[in-house]
Design a protein that fits this description.
Elements: H1 9-13, H2 23-62, H3 68-99, H4 117-122, H5 124-158, H6 160-163, E1 171-172, E2 175-176, H7 180-216, H8 222-271, H9 279-303, H10 306-323, E3 328-333, H11 340-361, E4 366-373, E5 376-383, H12 397-406, E6 410-414, E7 421-428
Length: about 425
């Protein structure tokens, strides 16, 4: 199977053939194109930063207080910079999102639309872009200068044999070289360090790209997430109310009438002679009615099991354990009443998990634990089977996880090859 192409520089750096791919050239273009942008930003920061640093040094080293004009300049300059930053960073963020494609092929979410001048200052995305601008103008130039010094040092080592033949005696690292013979070991080391510097440049570009993606990607709106959570809660509540209505209508309306119809058909079969032309159609209708009664009971049981209503969660789970094909131990430590939707979800979790044990695990025993810790119901089903449970294999775990997520719970699975398997479900118990 042909390996997939890496989608971003950090992933490409882990590949063996990175130096022979096109990624080093893309990283080089990204670094070189950063220089003018970071240079302009660093000059803007130095206009305020250099006097501030000088004033701090004067106070700490010489104990001299800054003069009033310098204080006014620093205050006005800092406030002006902060006031203009959310506006200036709009084109900067657009350019940086475009340049990020050089080292990261993953698509970015679309930038937020212009919210208006006043709303721009209240936007979290705007201040994340400002933070990126300060990072690009403050930290990045320092890292680039360090990389440049390392490159120049390596270049001096590589060219030292030719420089040693000149009239002046060059100094390589910390030692004076008196001839080409003494410089050859330095040149060899310099050649060997070229791939290391290439990887260092790639790491710097990957780090810069990761920070750009982190700060320039539009963050999720917390208010919108809260609204999604509230809407999901409303949907679950509406579903639960509709489920109870359907259960009540089927149990109190359709099921008794179907039972009566089945009895009437049974009595009619007794009154009709077996050799009558109507006997056979009547027998077929009676059998179909009885089959429909069984199907209706199963539908009602699937909506909410009757045992759950009569026995509660612990009793209904023990009934499931008694009907299981392997010995199942039930340990229930739950006090007080549980919300109906939580009870129903927990019951179907145990039912599906025990069904998976019987169908796929090859286990000799299983255990079910029900416990309540604070406002959370914890359901654990474990077995001594062969393990290797995988939701992608269609063992019902994906549907089970969806059912648990619908009530804002979570499902945890531990099933190493060879076993054992443990399914843990945590359900919040809201009153």
């Amino acid at each position: 199977m042909k390996p997939e192409h890496p989608r971003h520089l950090a992933e490409a750096l882990r590949r063996r053939g990175w130096l022979l791919s096109f990624w080093p050239w893309r990283a080089l273009v990204y670094l070189v194109s950063t220089v003018p942008i970071a240079g302009v930003l660093s000059v803007g920061l130095l206009i305020v930063g250099a006097p501030l640093l000088a004033a701090v040094n004067a106070m700490t080293l010489h104990g001299r207080r800054p003069e009033l004009p310098l204080v006014l300049f620093l205050a006005v300059g800092s406030l002006t910079m902060l006031a203009l930053a959310p506006i200036v960073t709009v084109p900067l963020a657009a350019v940086e999102r475009w340049r990020l494609g050089l080292v990261d092929n993953r698509p970015l979410p679309p930038p937020p639309p212009w919210p208006g001048l006043v709303a721009r200052y209240r936007s979290g995305s705007a201040w994340r872009e400002v933070a990126y601008a300060f990072w690009l103008g403050g930290f990045v130039p320092i890292a680039y200068w360090v990389l440049l010094l390392l490159v120049l040092l390596d270049l001096g080592m590589v060219t030292s044999p030719w420089l040693a033949g000149a009239a002046d005696q060059p100094v390589v690292i910390w030692r004076t070289v008196h001839g080409p013979g003494e410089a050859i070991p330095y040149a060899i080391v310099g050649v060997l360090l070229i791939p290391v510097l290439c990887y260092a440049a790639g790491l710097l570009a990957a780090l810069q790209g990761a920070v750009a993606r982190w700060l320039l990607t539009r963050p999720a709106d917390a208010a919108a997430l809260r609204e999604v959570a509230r809407s999901r809660t409303r949907l679950v509540s509406a579903y639960e109310a509709e489920r109870r209505r359907i259960e009540r209508d089927v149990h109190d309306g359709a099921q008794p009438r179907l039972t009566s119809l089945t009895l009437q058909l049974g009595l009619a079969r007794l009154d009709v002679p077996e050799d009558s032309p109507a006997a056979r159609p009547l027998a077929v209708a009676h059998d179909q009615a009885r089959g429909l009664m069984v199907m209706l009971r199963q539908l009602v049981h699937g909506i909410r099991p009757q045992s759950l209503t009569d026995l509660g969660l612990a009793g209904a789970v023990r009934e499931l354990a008694d009907a299981a094909t392997v010995p199942v131990t039930v340990r229930a430590e739950i006090d007080g009443e549980l919300p109906e939707i939580v009870e129903t979800t927990a019951y179907f979790v145990v039912s599906e998990a025990l069904g998976n044990v019987a169908r796929h695990a090859g286990a000799t025993r299983a255990e079910v634990r029900l416990s309540r810790s604070g406002g959370t119901l914890v359901v654990e089903v474990s077995d001594d089977g062969q393990g290797g449970a995988d939701p992608a294999r269609g063992t019902g775990l994906t549907g089970l996880a969806d059912r648990v997520a619908a009530v804002d719970g979570r499902l945890l699975l531990a099933s190493p090859p060879g076993g054992p398997t443990r399914v843990r479900v945590e359900l919040p118990c809201r009153p």
